[in-house]
Amino acid sequence: MLDPRKLRLLRELARRGTIAAVAEAVMFTPSAVSQQLSALEREAGVPLLERTGRTVTLTPAGRLLVEHAQTVLEELERASAALAAVRGGPSGPVRIGAFPTAARALMPAALAELARACPELEPMVSEIDPADVSGALRAGELDVALVHEYDFVPAEADPALATEPLFAEPMYLTGRAALAEARDDPWITGKPGTLCHAMTIRACQAAGFEPRVRHQVDDFDTVLAFAAAGQGVALVPRLAALAPPPGVTLSELPLSRRTLAAFRGGYGGHPAIGAAVAAFRTAITHLPL
């Protein structure tokens, strides 16, 4: 019998590429991950990994098992959700991830709605960058999360996750009326590796130039404060620009940021997930979109 917990580790290895990365994601030691994968090989009865020095790759049998593991793990999530529905209404802890803008603009109203509609539910919110959500959901650190994607930067497909679209908001340019006008300006972007940074770079490239990045800041309040101080121009979403500091002009662009709810595949039928998504939707009706 193949152990689902070990199958999850194999799936993570296929995605992350190294034992060390898997260990960091699931908060095991590398040696514990290696032992679990070796035990899975014994259960499977065929080699699943090829080891060359410190490099580990999946064998054809390993890749085949990962394909089946995804189906098995999703069915287990679906079974868990079905059993939770049989037990009754939403109750107990539900771990919610949210990126900073959503945590500030959407989550307070969503938490109030959850307290009203599902008093037995215990929401636990963690602020998280959307780039880290996939790993946190897959590792079971979160149950549901708010993520976003931008024009020019669509969400990376992850077969282990499912999403539900929630709302879209326009993007604004500070200090200029159009991107082309900011060709020679200094820019304020997010840090490399973030979706916001990639969106800004690609939007400028689509307008025919490479932005001259002066500052790299992730917090939109700080971005707007820098813009007010004449430190550069920036792209910001509507929810981050509801109360810009004095002196900052904003021009709406034909670009958007879209927010989605993400959860593990097969887990969407869990009462707690359904309650959380319903609360998000109720809270959205109060947003100035």
From TrEMBL:
GO terms for molecular function: DNA binding; DNA-binding transcription factor activity. One of its GO terms (cellular component) is protein-DNA complex. InterPro entries: LysR_HTH_N (IPR000847), LysR_subst-bd (IPR005119), WH-like_DNA-bd_sf (IPR036388), WH_DNA-bd_sf (IPR036390). Keywords: DNA-binding, Transcription, Transcription regulation. The keyword Aminoacyl-tRNA synthetase does not apply. Pfam families: HTH_1 (PF00126), LysR_substrate (PF03466). SUPFAM superfamilies: Periplasmic binding protein-like II, Winged helix' DNA-binding domain. Residues 2-59 form the HTH lysR-type domain. Transmembrane segments: none annotated. Belongs to the LysR transcriptional regulatory family. This is LysR family transcriptional regulator.
